[in-house]
Amino acid sequence: MTTKTQNFQPVLDEINDEIRPLLGVGGEVASYIPARARVPAAQFGIALRTCSGHEACAGDAAVPFSIQSVSKLFTLTLAMQHLGERLWERIGREPSGNPFNSLVQLENEQGKPRNPFINAGAIAVADRLLSVGDAKAMVLALMSSLANEAVAFDDEVAASEAATGYRNYALANFMKSFGKIDNDVSSVLDMYFHQCAIRMNCVQLARAAAFLCRDGAHPFDGRPAVTTERQTRRINALMLTCGTYDAAGDVAFSIGLPCKSGVGGGIVAVVPDHLTLAVWSPALDATGNSLLGMKALELFVAKTGLSVF
Ligand code: DON
């Protein structure tokens, strides 16, 4: 039996059984906005979709959460679709080695963010998308098509992000001062704050990111490809090197899969040519990654032997 047809339900059930006793023990829920601070920590969900469309899930896989920086994966995908190589004139492809909202490298690097997964990089991607069209509508249309059901913004979270996002205003204005942002800072940040506020559950997220395990083919057959095979490899490469903030080296070492995390506690992980996983648990470790989400991915890799290495 190959992983394409394998029944992963027993593996996910085992992982859920091993994670549940650890819920509420370590880590901290992101509390920078009220809507995030009141999310109960003791939740855990896991879901996967194989490249041939088999699915499995366990725990709180149907509970919606704020996908936060996991959205950067999908806005990058849109920008690669629409801009191709031109995207890289404004955004780098190197790990930053700094926290996701750091300002320090931007000054020395003339307002060009290190990569599309730190806040500065995602804000630059949002600017590129606004130059192409209605970026908020584009991202919702992409996510809804990929998840095969309607996906929406959480307006309360978007409004709180806008009311408290002082560092993001600083990052956007700083890049604008270098001539690296074309659109109004307020429109760019409106897009960025909304993408952070997309609400999805693990099942939807595993479906939505499933094009990454199948060379860019849409997760649901019969629809146009999402990205080319080459672009898909590149997105996976960026996830491995830059997708988990300044923990990317450790994550490659201990899990060995391309991952993208968000401060809502969600993580998408890809086993190219096999499957895409989504895990969620709101309590974060010191690097801003979901503590038990990472633990669950470590367990998955140990139990299945799946890795890109
Ligand atoms: O923009 C922010 O800082 C928050 N909305 C957190 C985003 C996030 O998940 C961390 N990002 N890389």
Describe this protein's structure.
The chain has helices at 9-19, 34-37, 71-83, 104-108, 119-132, 135-147, 155-164, 166-177, 185-196, 202-208, 229-242, 248-254, 291-304; strands at residues 28-29, 45-50, 55-59, 65-66, 152-153, 198-200, 259-261, 266-271, 275-280, 283-284. By secondary structure, the protein is α+β, with helices and mostly antiparallel strands. It folds into 2 domains: 9-66 and 200-304, DD-peptidase/beta-lactamase superfamily (Beta-lactamase, 3-Layer(aba) Sandwich); 69-196, Beta-lactamase, CATH 3.40.710.10. The strands form 3 sheets. It has a 5-stranded antiparallel beta sheet with strand order 3-2-9-8-7. A 3-stranded antiparallel beta sheet has the order 4-6-5. The chain has a two-stranded antiparallel ribbon with strand order 1-10. A hairpin with a 3-residue loop joins strand 8 (266-271) and strand 9. Helix 1 (9-19) crosses helix 13 (291-304), helix 5 (119-132) packs across helix 8 and helix 7 crosses helix 9. The structure holds 6-diazenyl-5-OXO-L-norleucine. This is Glutaminase.
Short description:
This is Glutaminase. By secondary structure, the protein is an alpha+beta fold.
